[in-house]
């Protein structure tokens, strides 16, 4: 909402000491937040005066242009110009043609500065010395009035030589306020001025408070079919309107200051009244209206062309669009935008004025349905004072008569009555209780009266409060509390810490999640946060098969991009993109991780919508939650390119499949989880270098080298590696209370064995067999070498293990250790065909 | 110095003469003193104290002396050998020390050589920022509550006093899952976590809810379809705006420094009434000579978030007895808070995944 300071001051008698800054500070404190202050002309310096064009010689130029060589009478302002000759006038070259000799114009003289630091000086151009500039609206930083030329000052405007600033409305600051949805009344000068009066304790004269003619129903016949949608409808008629009458300068300026375009007198007047009072009104060309006006819901199949030339299919039914009709059908989208068939034109002489009160919910739905945001709709959907229509219609008529030469036809149609405001009961100590400020019952009542509410006499500390007609937002005691507290001042709220919080700290899961992040960062990985939106093309890049479960996504109804219309099931795309970006920006290697939610459809049907007057039952709450997608937290890692740098210490190393496994195994060990690693094939991993990660036979994810095609597609170096796993599952497997270990301090017995097995046998299987066969004396098994080559033969490999034995109570003899080793090897031989080298 | 006594003549035993013994001793001591390192000392030891050294030979000849001369000669040779051995030991110890010191000197390296063989990792400032905030509240006895990002419409809107036709629903353009009449949304704020908390716990409730939220904003330097919020909810007997102010003042000073407080301005949110915008004293200029301050752009204050007294309608929908309990709630953007706390100019740097950005924040905020 933009409000000129001069207009505010016209409606409320603010003391001189209230500067614009004081005013905006106070209004911000009351809840009308200052967005900005505009002052047209603030960046114009120097002599800007009214001039009269004495002569205008049209001079064609070689380049085909015609320039005007003008002599302009600048009256007393000539004193500012060295050698000015009043008889000759000021010589100025002008390229615009929308004016002629005798017209009054706005002139900036040498020494002046226009917006954009455009300095004016006398200069030679087109064979003349042009000493100044005849100004257009845009050159002065004013809104274009559509004439696309220089400003022609009306004949009754100021005399030549006068400073033009006042005429142009410069110096009048325009305050832009941010108006919250509950303060729709402040979308008008009436509302802003009322708040200013409240803020400074000065009297307020309500511009809506005006005498209106007796209601006789004779202005126009109006039939309201839907009094819920349209509780009040006022109509007036004027005739003899001069469609060529210009909009008076002050109305035009104010409409423009409010950020609207000046269109024609009739339209400008309705907008002016809307700005003044907050009541949207509409003018129809009465000669184009066939028969009586009706108000009803649209019917199936009806359509309308609105003033913006859009053809709109209307939504029928009880929740459908409210329309204004005549005998031809709908002629307006009620409260939102008028129709084209009855639009006021350059020949309109009879104007039917409508001012009505509309159901905000219906307005909101219509606006949303038709994606139509209008100044009228904005006000109507937030709730307008239902007592305004009669006065607003009268005000429009008054201005059309005053400025358009129209005659007000007798007759005043007013259908319906304003719905009564509900009475809200409030304990007078509630404002004090909820604000923590000491506010007496008397003060509370006084402030409620100050906002225009009617307060019944109190009784036992409880009062009945009837909010004023312009405050449909006030329905609950807490709404009244806000009113009282904002007048007392939010700055009066004391600062106290609540003392009763007795929380249990972070949960175990919350601590574990932090641990995971720290552990990965400690392993040299950098965390990233990426968007969770995906599309089929992303899955194609990952090489997922058509039936891959990760393609079954939760789709979005209104994605930002049609390329990525779903919530992701995997974190890898975002992570691979980020890795590619880092490599693309010159990083020799990158190690990234992300933990975030992924989603899988639950297919449990729609989520119910419950009422809000009572709590849903437990079963109902469960139903809400069951309807949601399954949303586990995943962890993903990408390692690409240089993992260890080369340097004076020797060669570095690029990330490989084993680095990914090292990261996840280390994490599992730190978390105390026994992770099982087996071979698998799954995209986007390399088919021969992908490990399936599981806990207690339940899969939790994969790790290994990425498929070469995937590396290529995401711009990653070959052999880049990745992990993705279900973090929730990993953390759920962490032991809550780890058992304290028992270990022996007796001497260690070492036995190393080298076993030759088929190349297809996994190290994990051999190790497991050794472990099982070695018996209770075994302390640890560790593979320390793996070899393939001529010495072990084609299709074979040699695996060397270090076995460590220790007894709890004695030093092992060589025989005991050897026997245990032999038992281990025997088990490996029987299970995996291992032969000791 | 005498050579080996090849034609031994027990009568001529010049070797044990006092002059000879003294000469041999002096020669030995001089050689010991002259030994520059342990290698040389080893040779000296062999020459002057070895089996074939003059003093050793002299010692051997003592037995050939007439008995009456033996005692004196024995004493003479023994003293000389003792002196030599002592000198050897002393010199050896000395050279040992020198040797060790020299090895350490020779082993010195250039300690300024780079050692960045392994890359340094980092957690994202959005993570560490959320943890910092959570810790401030946990230290006050609050708990951290969480909920899913894909949420039931009823929990995201209706339960929070945002009815189907509430104008505020257009203020936060919502991502809906398809079909939209499944009534499931990407949560537009973390407030549904508050609703869930009230539905599942009984007061007193003091929870803070950091999390990821979504709105259909186009992606630019100051807007993102995904961002992060932290909300707080306190429900207890006798809760007032004063407790809200106290809590936010404490939060502000912990997050931005001692003396940083907040200011309330009346505002509107469906879930709170009365509602307030909360501004923060600019932690850079502290409201003094703000005109040139780039952080608050001359305002002296920074818009931080929204807050208010929980609307009793919300308490009612979530099963909290509003006649007994009142509550306050607040919320602010974590991304935005990081932007002004760390002087970030483009929101998008948070989501690009450039490691240079993330590592700049260290491991804790």
From TrEMBL, chain A:
Binds 2 magnesium ions per tetramer. Pfam families: B3_4, B5, FDX-ACB, tRNA_bind, tRNA_synthFbeta. Residues 744-837 form the FDX-ACB domain. It is found in: Cytoplasm. GO terms for cellular component: phenylalanine-tRNA ligase complex. One of its GO terms (biological process) is phenylalanyl-tRNA aminoacylation. Signal peptide: none annotated. The keyword Coiled coil does not apply. Its main location: cytoplasm. Mg(2+) binds at residues 473, 479, 482-483. Its EC number is 6.1.1.20. Residues 42-165 form the TRNA-binding domain. GO terms for molecular function: ATP binding; magnesium ion binding; phenylalanine-tRNA ligase activity; tRNA binding. It catalyses: tRNA(Phe) + L-phenylalanine + ATP = L-phenylalanyl-tRNA(Phe) + AMP + diphosphate + H(+). Its cofactor is Mg(2+). CDD domains: PheRS_beta_core, tRNA_bind_bactPheRS. Keywords: Aminoacyl-tRNA synthetase, ATP-binding, Cytoplasm, Ligase, Magnesium, Metal-binding, Nucleotide-binding, Protein biosynthesis, RNA-binding, tRNA-binding. NCBIfam families: pheT_bact. Belongs to the phenylalanyl-tRNA synthetase beta subunit family. Type 1 subfamily. Tetramer of two alpha and two beta subunits. This is Phenylalanine--tRNA ligase beta subunit. It comes from Nocardioides caeni.
From TrEMBL, chain B:
It comes from the Bacteria. It catalyses: tRNA(Phe) + L-phenylalanine + ATP = L-phenylalanyl-tRNA(Phe) + AMP + diphosphate + H(+). One of its GO terms (biological process) is phenylalanyl-tRNA aminoacylation. It is found in: Cytoplasm. The keyword Aminoacyl-tRNA synthetase applies. GO terms for cellular component: cytoplasm. Tetramer of two alpha and two beta subunits. This is Phenylalanine--tRNA ligase alpha subunit. The gene is pheS.
